């Protein structure tokens, strides 16, 4: 098939289901080729084409990890990296099942945030819709009173005004979508936005907590596969999907090549939380690195849940303020145009 998908992405919910299904099949004793053949046979749409490509590569002798990697960004960085780690360590079934658990938690975390802003967002959309109705209603109202009525004072009246209003909204939405695509991409603009996002109050704390939960969990999985320290560090940073943390990869690798331990290499970057470095140090000294990282990961997950809940409240408040601001502005415009405008017309000139 030779398909290479780098722009489309599988949803986290679907990836959780797929990871668990494949992990359980592998644990039952099925070969990875047979598992991928089943996925290809039963799947539909884009996933069908992707798994068909993975299956073809496996038939040609390519490893599962490399086959997944060849699909570009369809699978997230964590999945691509852990597929290679699991295959290399001989623990692919366990890795896939644990990935499913991990993605389940991310889906729940996202749901907490979305539920927090859903109602305020609905009110904002409703307010925007009401403005559109007012614009359209000006035309029949003008016909009834026998003169032009422009309550909003923007010259947007009737069907023509409504079309202009919809066009402006479409441009704003399109600009936001394009900006979001670039901001979450791997280009220079996206890298800069991702760095700046870490410094935004509340939002930065939530992102850092989520990334660290993500990173400590993956590091525990990677360290459990008996890899060298340099490989653990490099592979772990790849799974973050964040250019800020990935930017420390070379510096950390240089320190490790000098014979330093993981906690020393990470500490010297001054880019990672102190509790993470302390757990690394304790884990390395006591030989409990994997267990320590797993425990820390659960702590970061709890922090991420709390932080994203706060962000959701802040976003909801901001949305309510936007709705209130829009309504106040509309009331003010109606007052200025209808009331003060009428008074001005009555004043002798």
Q: Can you give a write-up of this model?
A:
There is one protein chain. This protein has helices spanning 12-27, 32-42, 45-59, 64-69, 77-89, 92-145, 158-183, 188-197, 203-223, 229-240, 243-246, 249-257, 262-269, 274-286, 289-346. It is mainly alpha-helical and 349 residues long. It folds into two domains: 12-75, no CATH class; 102-349, no CATH class. Helix 5 (77-89) runs antiparallel to helix 10 and helix 14 packs antiparallel against helix 15. The chain is elongated, with a radius of gyration of 27 Å.
Q: Which features does this protein show?
A:
349 residues; mainly alpha; 2 domains; disordered N terminus
SSE layout and pairings?
Blueprint: H1 12-27, H2 32-42, H3 45-59, H4 64-69, H5 77-89, H6 92-145, H7 158-183, H8 188-197, H9 203-223, H10 229-240, H11 243-246, H12 249-257, H13 262-269, H14 274-286, H15 289-346
């Amino acid at each position: 098939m030779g398909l290479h998908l780098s722009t489309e992405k599988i949803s986290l919910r679907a990836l959780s289901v797929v990871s668990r299904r494949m992990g359980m099949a592998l644990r039952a004793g099925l070969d990875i080729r047979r598992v991928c053949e089943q996925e290809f046979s039963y799947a539909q749409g884009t996933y069908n084409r992707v798994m068909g490509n993975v299956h073809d590569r496996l038939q040609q002798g390519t490893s599962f990890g490399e086959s997944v990697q060849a699909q570009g960004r369809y699978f997230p960085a964590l999945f691509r990296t852990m597929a290679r780690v699991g295959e290399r360590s001989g623990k692919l079934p366990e890795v896939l099942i644990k990935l499913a658990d991990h993605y389940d938690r991310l889906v729940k975390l996202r749901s907490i945030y979305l539920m927090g802003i859903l109602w305020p967002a609905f009110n904002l959309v409703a307010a925007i819709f009401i403005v559109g109705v007012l614009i359209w209603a000006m035309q029949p109202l003008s016909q009834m009173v026998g003169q032009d009525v422009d309550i909003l004072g923007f010259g947007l009246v009737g069907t023509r005004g409504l079309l202009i209003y919809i066009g402006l909204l479409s441009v704003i939405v399109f600009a936001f979508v394009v900006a979001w695509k670039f901001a979450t991409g791997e280009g220079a603009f996206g890298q800069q936005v991702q760095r700046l996002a870490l410094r935004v109050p509340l939002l930065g704390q939530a992102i850092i907590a989520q990334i660290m939960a993500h990173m400590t969990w993956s590091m525990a999985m990677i360290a459990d596969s008996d890899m060298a320290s340099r490989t653990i560090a490099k592979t772990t940073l790849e799974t973050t999907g964040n250019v800020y943390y990935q930017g420390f990869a070379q510096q950390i690798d240089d320190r490790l090549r000098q014979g330093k331990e993981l906690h020393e290499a990470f500490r010297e970057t001054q880019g990672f939380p102190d509790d993470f470095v302390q757990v690394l140090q304790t884990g390395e000294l006591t030989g409990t690195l994997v267990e320590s990282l797993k425990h820390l990961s659960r702590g970061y997950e709890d922090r991420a849940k709390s932080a994203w809940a706060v962000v959701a409240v802040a976003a909801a408040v901001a949305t309510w303020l936007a709705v209130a601001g829009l309504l106040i502005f509309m009331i003010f415009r109606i007052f200025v145009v209808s009331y003060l405008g009428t008074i001005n017309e009555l004043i002798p000139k």
